[in-house]
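Lecture 7, part 2: worked example. A protein chain together with coproporphyrinogen III.
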Amino acid sequence: MTAPASQPTAPPAGPAARPDARFLRAVRGQSVDATPVWFMRQAGRALPEYRAIRERATLLEITRDAALCTEVTLQPVRRLGVDAAILFADITTPLAGMGVAFDIVEGRGPVIEHPVRTDADVAALRAFEPEAAVAPLLEAISLIRRESPVPLIGFAGAPFTLACYLVEGGPSRDFGKTKALMHAEPETWARLLDRLVTATIAYLRAQVAAGVETVQVFDSWVGGLSPLDYERRLWPHMRRLFEGIAGLGVPSIHFGVGTAGILALQASAGGDVIGLDWRVALSEGRRIVGGRAVQGNLDPTLLLGPWEGVEEQARWVLEQNARRAGHVFNLGHGVLPGTDPDQLRRLVDLVHDHGASL
Ligand code: CP3
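Predicted complex, written out as structure tokens:
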């Protein structure tokens, strides 16, 4: 796949282009020599070399320094032998460029200074201009493309998950304020989601122009919605988002957590690959998303226990896939703090040794 000719800065072709990398083949549903594997949240969290960098720079500082961002993105590629790199940023990264003041609090997550709860709050959000707002990150993408032996995944938070942070003002268990806005002020909700979709398309377009080879949309909190709310209050926005990125010339991964009851809706909204968490058997998830490639789906907490448990269930995930093309091995959610990087490395080897497609 190539980027449309109208892109001002096309992704670098030539030595760094690798359409035959097994990760990209699997994402496109093609056969592979070994099942590709990477881990959500593979950078940060588990790696001592990341902690060392965090001693002298905050997360926000890392994302605003192209060299540091490149280093942190490549750390897990070197140590773990994964088949893809994921750009080091946070889902909240583009919010600063929309005029939202926030901080990322250690061990807690993003905290928004002035939550967005009224029509006036939505109207005050600025249009997102990636070249002005995230220039160092875009520069990091071209540095990573030059240095990385494996494809680079760009990403963005999905509009519902971003809205949860914006409306709640921080992490939440039940998303009560967000859902209250959705139901009490449906027009304000629709305007907020519309702003977020527009910003996210611009953000992902800029990442692709700078060189990312796949994009993943993280809808981490969407599992909190009923299928009816998803269909009425979210689906049209997700559809517009995926239509907006469909023409960018790179494949997309659509990921969520706790999504067993809304997988068909998610898949119909878009995404070349659908993320599955561990609450659904991979074979069942594949059946629901009908012919689409899938990514997943080992329970990340297994990695906090003995290797035997990891091995047993990783083999089960591979058996569930039954050597079909279009499987990217991953955890069902991100690597948990406290995970031993050696277990991750062993898991990569196991997947490479035992998974493949026919
Ligand atoms: O390795 C990678 O996956 C790339 C980097 C990345 C980060 N955040 C860096 C980060 C990615 C892909 C994200 C996405 C993200 N951020 C999501 C979606 C994925 C998911 O896990 O559901 C969400 C919901 C967030 C919001 C967020 N950012 C939370 C809840 C937290 C605190 C808890 C924690 O430890 O992750 C953050 C902070 C954050 N983002 C860290 C990292 C490495 C924490 C460590 C630090 O402060 O250095």
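The chain has 15 helices and nine strands. Residues 40-45, 54, 59, 86, 88, 90-91, 104, 106, 109-110, 155, 171, 218, 220, 334, 337 surround coproporphyrinogen III (CB under 6 Å). Keep this in mind for problem set question 3.
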